[in-house]
Amino acid sequence: MRTHAIFILLIFVLIIFQTTNAQEKWTPKILGPNNKVYLPDYSYAGYKWSEEEIPNLKSTVSILKYGAKPNDEIDDTEAIIKAIKSESSKKGVKVISFPKGKFIISEIIYITQSNLVLQGAGNGKGGTILYVPRPLSKMKLTEKFKARKDYMIKNNKKVHGKYFSIFSWSGGVITIKKPATTMKPKFIKAIKGQRGQHSITFTKTSDFKEGDSLLIRWVSSKNKEMIQHVFGKGKIKIGEKVIKGVKAKQMITVTKVFKNIIETKEPLIHDIKEDWEVTLNKKIFLEHVGIENFHIQFKEKKYKGHHLEDGFNAIHANDLQHSWLRNITISHADSGLLVGNCKNISIDGLITKGRKGHYSAKIGGSSYVLVTNFSFQAYAIHNPSFNTYCTGSVYTNGKVKEGRLDQHNGCNQYNLMDNMRVDIGDYLFHHGGANYHSPTSGLFNTFWNIQIKKMNRNAPIKCHDAPGARLIGIYCKTKKIKLDYKPKPYLEGLNKSGINIPSLFEYQLKRRKEKIK
Fold first, then answer.
1. Which helix (H) or strand (E) holds 83?
2. Over 50: is that where the pLDDT of 21 sits?
3. pLDDT band at 223 (very low <50, low <70, confident <90, very high)
4. Which of 135, 139, 155, 239 is the most buried (most CB within 10 A)?
């Protein structure tokens, strides 16, 4: 009896010890005062640099006024297009509200003006459903889509003997973009700037003014010093288009102007030197555009395959600044959300559901996009994605059913995936992207507090040609993770739970806001 009691006591002590050990908190050394490893400040992502909340706006007009009616099984496309056209011509911020129920959309809905919000009654049960019975391939298309098709044919872009789909990485049943213009950008040469700082010097006085949004381009194809600065000293493959083209892009905001010097809101991602080819030009965006509280539901059709998509794409957001998508559920999509040429937008509460697709969310050609409180329940080949020329963008505080945290070549760099729960993590760093756009990424992509529920394979998680990565707090609850990540990343807390700072983004944002005060 005595032996039995001692045995039970030992088991109890062991359980207490294991529980305490599992919950032991730790703080990454990279945040310490003596740290010498460069860690970017990712806190500038989001609407108004995440310094202000997304506005909660009241309806200014109901979609019912324009003839759309829920649940009548009559196509509502014409009424929605009419409402957007009419309301866009009015002054101030216009909020077109949709009551609960199902509305049918059979053609592309375009938003081309600032200060417009589409507002549903919710993205869950009892909310607003935008039902889309057919793909983009069956809708009326602009000449731009035809030009993409010509590109596929000219470059013989094929898979399984068929030309690539023109909807694989573009197009959405709701498409946001500014009107086309023939105006060519005016490039100004920059000669001085330092990574992490907020000042740029030019060869001559520019016409930039406070509040302007600018695009910085690190161009030089021959300067080895600049190439090494952008991609690091590690051994990597650099593709033909990257060698000949732009190495990095960053969109910034002017805060002050002093003759031939400007100060910027956002810190520079790279140095600028006089003998490097670095240029700046003005950017014009749509602002204060919002889509919120909808369930976009496609007719369920089997996925046709990678780069063979029919175009069941929900939202293609382009040319936006200080805008938002909020509380959006997307079902049975080829691609849920595609983001291009945007700066400082927030996507909050994005959910994907249903059958397999291509992208859950893709950010390309953009700076400081924030995706938070997401749940990617549908399987996707890229799930989610940092794509070509994505810079300073963040996915944080979300869940992914099967994580394929895509760094899609094309000089994506300086991005953060943060505080994520992944159900299945066997192919955690699986990525796409053409070889001519290699390497996998530029410098300083960070993966912070990635919690994996289970892994079915014993093979290492692989990612090559991704220089300067920071991997902090990646662990699996059921299996010890082995990594094959090259060049060698900064690695801390592998297979270790209990990180004391679950979100780097929130940590950095809090510290920056305290300095602003």
1. helix 77-88
2. no
3. confident
4. 135
